[in-house]
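Here we describe the complex-level prediction in full. Unlike the single-chain runs in Section 2.1, the two entities below were treated as one system.
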Amino acid sequence: MDKVLLVFRREFAGYFATPLGAVFLAVFLAIGAGMTFFVASFFDRAQADLSAFFLWHPWLYLVLMPAIGMRLWAEERRSGTIELLMTLPARPWQLVLGKWLAAWAFAGLALALTFPLWITVNVLGSPDNGVVLASYVGSWLMAGAFLAMAACVSALTKNQVLAFIGAVVVGFVFVMAGFDLVLSAVRPWAPDVVVQAVASMSFIGHFQRITDGVLEAPALVFFISLIFFALWLNVQALDARKAA
Amino acid sequence: MVLVETRALVKKFGAFTAVDGISFSVGRGEVVGFLGPNGAGKSTTMKIVAGFLEPTSGESFVAGHDSQEDPIAARQRLGYLPEGAPAYPDMTVGAFLEFVAAMRGLSRPQARERLAELVERIDLAEVWNRRMEALSKGFKRRVGIAQALVHDPDVLILDEPTDGLDPNQKHEMRELIRTLAPAKAIVVSTHILEEVEAICTRAIIIARGRMLADCTPAELLQRAPARDPAAASLVRTTPLEDAFRHITLEQAGS
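The structure predicted for the assembly as a whole is:
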């Protein structure tokens, strides 16, 4: 476990070693707030809740999480440091977990920095803070799922741009899984069970249930198991490159 | 005592066979030089021994531990300098070496003591707080060596440790390898022939994935063809170069 922590610390510090981390945080906050106030008309709704803020998170993350995750493995491969890392006496899962945790913590930091919004609604009215908290937790978990998928895609290439695009495409499928765009591609050839299974993968559906009310177990289980599955795939991807 | 051993290593990348049945062993006190043209399979062989690549078939052992089956134990006994001495560009030298030491399982006091010793020995004090992207090639290579020595391993695998260094730095690197040699088994790859004479107790010549020779530098010299005065070329060559060209070109012709 201490090796996971060491990888985590190195990787997390890496986000602040260049201006990139600060730029990312600024962009995240600007877009997050911009969507809340201008696109979702936070004030016009005249409701003391943050649903106008959370509403956009799946779309916000679709682009921003791959931007955090794309470097995780692709950069190591490009610079050759992956050879150093993978010949240290650590198991691949320790490296995978440490890297993902660092990206997830960074996303958590970005999310935490939106706290003035939470304070604002509490000043303006009396929101259901339980729902707000549940939404934050759900949002962070969803970010984790996006990041785990981005990390996995990143392990397949040494080109960060390719890793970014790949992660956005995979994320897009999950975001849109409940919509006809994706379902109509599955329906013609797959039995109903499969169509329903695909529909149940919808990020928007699961996330909405969290923001609508309490932290619902199936939605949590969905995001957590997706994270584990993507990280497992990430380990497999590293192993496959060894044998290639 | 045999510390590095490979048995019939084969590595294929698709239809291309990069390593084709390489078997050798290296004992304590030996410095084995991997010689060969570019793309001969030297780096691939080293990557397999270090456990970074899986062989298509065959086995490799570090201090008796299988690089594939028992990778953690094997890597604990191994220091590895990958080709090009890669380093995290945005880390400082100090932070990087401390990271490696911690990953290698050294406690903080142990790491501090060991790194102080290495900094002295490899002359890294002036760049300790510098980011690695700002390092010269020579320093980058030295950091790579320091990284491989942090845990005082029995086995050192150094992929072109002197590549890109100026003559003085090359000399220093060779001195360092020589002083390390008695206590360790060392494998270095190079395509500088004089280096083999300077530091190696044995030379293994690899071309197109195959081992063409495994002998002492002196024996290698004996394989140099007799000079034909009539065919004197414009470029003056050393006997070692003649031997190398003779062995590797002979294979290409066959």
